[in-house]
Amino acid sequence: MTTETVAVTGMTCEHCVASVTEEVSELAGVTDVAVALVPGGSSSVTVTSDRPLDDEALRGAIAEAGYEVVDR
């Protein structure tokens, strides 16, 4: 199991959380997605998977949901 946490901007509500969770959950190997929502700031998205995550695939899934990963 691997766990990775990324900061995501633009999320403001539970609908945003659901969108990101849905897109990221579709990545191969993902077993859990947890979002700590910070409206107006950088929310934390923690992804657990049974294999190493491809960083570009993770960023792409979050972008598909309409949000952006930011470097901390």
UniProtKB/TrEMBL annotation:
Residues 2-70 form the HMA domain. Coiled coil: none annotated. CDD domains: HMA. InterPro entries: HMA_dom, HMA_dom_sf. SUPFAM superfamilies: HMA, heavy metal-associated domain. Gene3D superfamilies: 3.30.70.100. It comes from Curtobacterium caseinilyticum. It comes from the Bacteria. The lineage of its organism: Bacteria, Bacillati, Actinomycetota, Actinomycetes, Micrococcales. This is Heavy-metal-associated domain-containing protein.
